[in-house]
Amino acid sequence: HLFSLLLTLLKTADLNCVYSPSDTSSYSGRDLLKYCINCALKREEDVHVLGFEVPEQELRSELDSNNKHLFHFHNAYSDPLGWRKQSSFTVEQFSAENITRLVRETKHAKASVLVIDSLSWIERHHNPVAICQQLHKLKKGGAIRTICCLLHMDLHQQGIVESICHLANTVITVTAVNNALYAEAKTTHRKKSGKVMQEEEFFTVMENLSLSIEKRPSQSGHAQVHSDAKVDPASNLTFNLRLSEVEREAKEKVALPFVFSQEKKSALLKKGQGSGRIIYEPDANDDFDEEDPDDDLDI
Amino acid sequence: MIICIVFLLTQDLQSCTSFHTVPPPGPCVRSEMFPELNSILSSSPENFTEGEFILLSDRQADASFLIHHYLTFYLRARCRVCFLGLVQSFSHYSVVSQRLGVNLTQAKEKGQLVFLEALKASPGVLLGDESSDKTAALDYLRSPCPELRGLYEFVWNSLSRAGGEDAAESWGPPVLIIDDLSVLLSLGVSAGAILDFTHYCQATICSQLQGSMIALVRCDDEEYDEDEESSNYLLKALSHQCSLSLRVEGLSTGYCRDIHGQVEIWWRGRGIKNQRKIFQYKVHDKGASFFAPGTSRAVL
């Protein structure tokens, strides 16, 4: 088995770690987020989700059914700004104190995992510096063991992305490969010792939330079939584009007009039949000077 | 004041645009005006996916033919439609829809269609005329009012009463169509406020009411920088949220009489369900035809 940094990190979450799957619109990092949640549930940890971007049923589907009672979805999707006066969690409530209180309300309060879907949503309403401060407080707070936040890289300026990634111990950047049949994950993990591990892997998330990792996209994948099949452009037409043998030979015999062959050379050197010669006799008015007229120019 | 004049001018232009004379629709009107598109998307007025957020966008082209398609499509499907007409007058859509075989005035009278005619109502709001009850929907014109909460509440009120008042008519799932979102950026609404508005629309109409939402974003090539208040940013952000995206562009080789442009259709899903396909199209009098690149009848 090849060592997979991605799998190892997601399956065994270290203490006080911040994970940040970062994605762009070409491939959604949410599947990886769900995988992360599933791993935490299997480890029997409480998972608290601040869900801004997708409704609860979309995140809950396919999760491990044994420990579903450990999954707590704080609904910030239906009414995040209080417009409908039926909000469960608003974006205004995003702070270390509020989240810590929410997490402490659950009876187990064992190792808790906080999942934020997504940080990009919160960034529209909060100062990025304030967000980093709150995340830092949560990291040091003790109520939360692991924080996993989804970030849409293409929606922020580079500085903001880098500040948030700086806060994280692990950053997983996902991009689409082969029309999103596979995705590439660039994982950067900073250990407590300061050592940084980096890896690039290709993965797919299957229907039952299982992760399949490869070191390079498989050569015999579905996507390859299209490029291997040679398309004959001359087929299925209402006119004929093909050549018969006779036509092919005749085509090869044709001398191209601007190719300087031996025949052309001898034809040029040969004197013509005398039909094209120009005979000029200068009369009295012509100043026929053999010398170069520009000779006196001082260039 | 200057903005006010622009609105009035635009409205005048609409009323004196010359259209071909439209013959009254006969007894047998062809029901499929976009047959290839319906087949590509595997949808028809009788059978379509619910809860979809369809994002339409264009760059150096005009995707409004898709807006006309979806408007007539969902009206034919007997859905309750709320149409936010922010850039054209009602008569504009009415004339085009008539050519496509749907009577918008009748739909409005029956209560199937709720049409926000923003151009007509805007001068009143800008000049401070408090009489109309639709002014709350256009609150974004009054600065400083950065949010589109009023507009959202208008949408919610229009679509949440589906089937309640008219016991005789039971309409299908609610549909919201927005033409278009980019004009809000030009009117001073921030991209964040627009995204909050679309979030609420999606959360209530798509997720809660299982209806559909169609929004058009128009982009300019000049805004390719990292500006967070540009249509490009809006397009990127909405691409994350949508379930289906149709991107219309002109041909890279320039204007062509027989091929008006290309559409990239992106089904956003997981694994094999995530697909992107490109088609070329030509808009004609009663619809548009779609074909695989290079197979236009004019070329073959």
From TrEMBL, chain A:
<protein>
    <recommendedName>
        <fullName>Elongator complex protein 5</fullName>
    </recommendedName>
</protein>
<feature type="signal peptide">
    <location>
        <begin position="1"/>
        <end position="15"/>
    </location>
</feature>
<keyword id="KW-0963">Cytoplasm</keyword>
<dbReference type="GO" id="GO:0000049">
    <property type="term" value="F:tRNA binding"/>
</dbReference>
<dbReference type="GO" id="GO:0033588">
    <property type="term" value="C:elongator holoenzyme complex"/>
</dbReference>
<dbReference type="GO" id="GO:0005634">
    <property type="term" value="C:nucleus"/>
</dbReference>
<dbReference type="InterPro" id="IPR019519">
    <property type="entry name" value="Elp5"/>
</dbReference>
<dbReference type="GO" id="GO:0005829">
    <property type="term" value="C:cytosol"/>
</dbReference>
<keyword id="KW-0539">Nucleus</keyword>
<comment type="pathway">
    <text>tRNA modification; 5-methoxycarbonylmethyl-2-thiouridine-tRNA biosynthesis.</text>
</comment>
<keyword id="KW-0819">tRNA processing</keyword>
<feature type="region of interest" description="Disordered">
    <location>
        <begin position="270"/>
        <end position="299"/>
    </location>
</feature>
<dbReference type="Pfam" id="PF10483">
    <property type="entry name" value="Elong_Iki1"/>
</dbReference>
<dbReference type="GO" id="GO:0002098">
    <property type="term" value="P:tRNA wobble uridine modification"/>
</dbReference>
<feature type="compositionally biased region" description="Acidic residues">
    <location>
        <begin position="283"/>
        <end position="299"/>
    </location>
</feature>
<keyword id="KW-0732">Signal</keyword>
<dbReference type="InterPro" id="IPR027417">
    <property type="entry name" value="P-loop_NTPase"/>
</dbReference>
<comment type="similarity">
    <text>Belongs to the ELP5 family.</text>
</comment>
TrEMBL record, chain B:
<dbReference type="GO" id="GO:0005634">
    <property type="term" value="C:nucleus"/>
</dbReference>
<dbReference type="InterPro" id="IPR027417">
    <property type="entry name" value="P-loop_NTPase"/>
</dbReference>
<dbReference type="GO" id="GO:0002098">
    <property type="term" value="P:tRNA wobble uridine modification"/>
</dbReference>
<dbReference type="GO" id="GO:0033588">
    <property type="term" value="C:elongator holoenzyme complex"/>
</dbReference>
<comment type="similarity">
    <text>Belongs to the ELP6 family.</text>
</comment>
<dbReference type="InterPro" id="IPR018627">
    <property type="entry name" value="ELP6"/>
</dbReference>
<keyword id="KW-0819">tRNA processing</keyword>
<dbReference type="Pfam" id="PF09807">
    <property type="entry name" value="ELP6"/>
</dbReference>
<feature type="signal peptide">
    <location>
        <begin position="1"/>
        <end position="18"/>
    </location>
</feature>
<keyword id="KW-0732">Signal</keyword>
<keyword id="KW-0539">Nucleus</keyword>
<keyword id="KW-0963">Cytoplasm</keyword>
<protein>
    <recommendedName>
        <fullName>Elongator complex protein 6</fullName>
    </recommendedName>
</protein>
<comment type="pathway">
    <text>tRNA modification; 5-methoxycarbonylmethyl-2-thiouridine-tRNA biosynthesis.</text>
</comment>
<dbReference type="GO" id="GO:0005737">
    <property type="term" value="C:cytoplasm"/>
</dbReference>
